[in-house]
Amino acid sequence: MTSTPAIPRHIAIVMDGNGRWAKARHRPRSFGHNAGRKAVREVVEGCLRQGVGALTLFAFSSENWQRPEEEVSALMALFLRALSKEVDELHEQGVRLRFIGDLDAFSDTLQKSMQDAMKRTSDNDRLHLNVAVNYGGRWDITQAARHAARAVERGEMRVEEIGEATLGKWMSLAELPPLDLFVRTGGERRVSNFLLWQLAYAELYFTDTLWPDFDQTCLQQAIADYAGRERRYGRTGDQVARSRNPAC
Length: 248
Ligand code: IPE
Ligand code: IPE
Ligand code: MG
Fold this sequence. Notes:
Blueprint (H helix, E strand, L loop, with lengths): L9 E5 L3 H6 L5 H22 L3 E8 L7 H24 L2 E6 L7 H13 L6 E9 L1 H17 L10 H6 L11 E4 L18 E4 L9 H12 L9 H8 L4
Parallel strand pairs: 1-2, 1-5, 2-4, 3-4, 5-6
Helix pairs in contact: 2-3, 2-7, 3-4
The site of one 3-methylbut-3-enyl trihydrogen diphosphate has 11 residues, from helix 1.
């Protein structure tokens, strides 16, 4: 009973639960973040196998700067380490890596490392992997609005031309297929300022599994759940059924 292909074209994941995973093992929170790297490899592998075209991972929110300094530094060090260790393999696998968010807040070294990785993998298109860092959905909408305002200021467009389609073009991920499936691990049922605009018609999937325990089987379960959804986009179930089989 679905009007869309069984495999989502674009999956976004809030990778949550690292801290609790570490706490259960009497280890520091950074231990959980490090353990989460394996889960990232698992979902990338799973998406490549199942033919998912785009994967967007929430790695660090604009609100996460409020965490203890020790944890923030550990996360920055982890990002740098992960970039130096994982990019070769991602490149070999045909993954295009992109970072979305306000990157200016990061150290020069980290920014350079992110830019290098993006440039190096820019011709790949087997899987579009987007990592959201210092990202907030409200920031994304705001920066798109700023683009529109600048275009008006330069006389390139009229205020009346600002609409969902024009504004949408300036939102992060605009060039990728629309978000089909949103997954959050770690048991919380909230969006936490992730892709607010892009989530408009995504299917939502929540699991109690903590991020470091998430693997390809868990991803398969999320995809199977998605495949059973009926996406109506405002229409009735009967209309959706008829559009699947116009003969009846
Ligand atoms: C998500 O795991 C990772 C980041 C926010 C960087 P958490 O660190 O939020 O883990 P919990 O929610 O405290 O268990
Ligand atoms: C959301 O998780 C951000 C990331 C996973 C990167 P949080 O753990 O920061 O979200 P809240 O604070 O529980 O809403
Ligand atoms: Mg959390």
